[in-house]
Design a protein that fits this description.
Number of helices: 8
Distance between the termini: 7 Å
Shape: globular
Radius of gyration: 19 Å
CATH topology of the largest domain: D-amino Acid Aminotransferase, Chain A, domain 1
CATH class of the largest domain: Alpha Beta
Largest sheet: 7 strands, antiparallel
Structural class: alpha+beta
Number of domains: 2
Oligomer: single chain
Number of strands: 16
CATH superfamily of the largest domain: ATP-grasp fold, B domain
Length: about 300
């Protein structure tokens, strides 16, 4: 599979994120195509990570299939031949969409990231360590870094077009989307995380935290959209080496972050675009992390 920095399909492109290109398919469907772009510290790298887009798409497809009948979602198909059957205009582009494209129902997206934290880490740990709070609300004292949160905390955030999403209170979320929608989004997010956390742990993976997005489809239903419990939207830890009280090794872009941190400390990068060139070993190590996450979660090797 050839690594892809950007796509150019014969459909109207209606969006381009840090990783995904979004195409309109009529009025009620979209094609999400996950490229091999990668970002860290809010900067998109010039290089690609081989197989990354396929990993993100196929892990999401795995979870959508597991959730069938439990939570409504937007996936129609992540199979290239089925997508071409439904969208014949893509017949000549099979190699570009193979493994990395998902045909989905179109929705009006709620401007909220629905974050579930089963363990305290990352930005949540930094805030708690400094003030004992999360999004300004007090948490139980005495927590250590990477400690399990029981029950898991629902921690919404606003969606940012650029820069970091901002953690907000549930009360603020209710002001944005209304009480009824806020309740439904939290209930659905908790249900998806509960299932995913159990299934992943059976495979030796702890999903420490994850974020979900939801939208309202053309029938008025609230449905799960975007990617689901991937290395880009979640913090995956190996259960067999988990030790609370310290940072955990994760199945994501950690080799990339470590390299960029070293470049910043050495004064060779100021943290802004353009980023420094990525060495081949960093690219390879990051690709292997993503593929290992797929293998751990699904129980099989990714074959495209």
């Amino acid at each position: 599979m050839t690594a892809m920095l950007a796509s150019d399909l014969p459909l109207p492109r209606i969006g381009r994120g840090k990783v995904r290109d979004i195409y309109a398919v009529g009025d009620d469907r979209v094609l999400l195509l996950a490229t091999d772009r990668i970002s860290a510290f809010d900067v998109v790298m010039a290089e690609t990570i081989p197989m990354k887009g396929a990993v993100l798409t196929q892990i999401s497809a795995f979870w959508f299939n597991e959730l069938e009948g439990m939570v409504p979602h937007h996936m129609i198909s992540a199979d290239a031949d089925e997508i071409i059957r439904q969208v014949p205009a893509l017949k000549e582009d099979r190699a570009d969409i193979l493994g990395r494209a998902m045909l989905c129902r179109r929705t009006r997206v709620f401007p909220i990231e629905c974050v579930i934290r089963g363990y305290i880490s990352g930005s949540a740990w930094k805030e708690f360590a400094a003030s004992g709070t999360l999004a300004g609300e007090k948490l139980a004292p005495g927590l250590t870094e990477s400690a399990k949160l029981d029950p898991a905390i629902f921690s919404p955030a606003t969606k940012a077009e650029t820069g970091h999403d901002e953690n907000i209170t549930v009360a603020r979320m209710r002001e944005v989307v209304g009480d009824e929608v806020a309740y439904e989004l939290e209930s659905m997010a908790r249900a998806v995380y509960t299932l995913g956390e159990k299934l992943a742990r059976d495979q030796g993976i702890i999903i420490a935290d994850t974020k979900f997005e939801f939208g309202r489809d053309t029938q008025g239903r609230i449905i799960l959209i975007d990617e689901v419990m991937t290395p880009d939207s979640s913090r995956f830890w190996a259960a067999d080496v988990y030790k609370p009280g310290q940072p955990q090794p994760s199945f994501d872009k950690q080799p990339l972050r470590d390299y960029l941190d070293a470049e910043r400390r050495a004064g060779r990068w100021n943290g802004d675009a353009p980023p420094p060139p990525l060495p081949a070993d960093v690219i390879d190590a990051t690709s292997r992390r993503y593929l290992e996450a797929y293998r751990r979660i699904t129980g099989k090797e990714l074959k495209i």
